Amino acid sequence: MIWIVYFALLILLPLWAQFKVKSTYKKFSKVPVSTGITGAEAARRILDDNGLQHVKVVESHGFLSDHYNPMTKTVNLSPNNFHGHSIAGAAVAAHEVGHAIQDKVGYAFLRFRHALVPVANISSNMSWIFIMIGIFAQATNMLLLGIVLMAAGVLFQVVTLPVEFNASNRAMDQIVASGVIRNDEEREARKVLNAAAMTYVAAAAVAVLELVRLVLMYTGMQQSED
């Protein structure tokens, strides 16, 4: 019964998070922002208000492909958010600018996450090789190595949480202070950002659950060897 619940969580958590963010975004992408400005204009205004005139706002491709690139110093907004005049577009644009502000002030968790990127990419890809060898060959040393490599990827997921929540908090502060939205629109903008944050929470939860399962498997194999 425990394993049924476990695997149900692994499957349902990400699906629920994706449904939540898409449905919330769809709802508020139809709600026009009172100021009538586009997401690109909102991002530009907040950037300029924070002395980030050198950061460019560019259009990216794909649905909800919005992100901040610290290497190129660009806020990349998906077409709907770049050109749209919605509450959702303004909120997402402000969130990505929040990352640009983090970059400017040297936010510790953002720096840590950037440092983890190459390690997490390599370890996440390699971890399952050692894990599968360890499981099928009943080799505890190989399984442990796979778990250690996977832990680096899990750490990346966990560190991502404060980065994203902090960016959203900065976004909410800036989006009102810069006059992008009115005070009475703040609740709707926060709903968009909270829904987006759930995707990161779900990803981190799934990663932690899987790591715990493998650790329990490792301890079980060790006990059977004794």
UniProtKB/TrEMBL annotation:
Keywords from UniProt, A to Z, are:
Hydrolase, Membrane, Protease, Transmembrane, Transmembrane helix
Where exactly are the transmembrane stretches of this chain? 115-136, 143-163, 197-216
List, alphabetically, the Pfam families matched: Zn_peptidase_2
InterPro entries (alphabetical): Zn_peptidase_2
Gene Ontology terms for molecular function: peptidase activity
Is Protease found in the keyword set? yes
Single GO biological process annotation from the record = proteolysis
- The protein's name is Zn-dependent protease
User: What species is given as this protein's source?
Assistant: Domibacillus iocasae
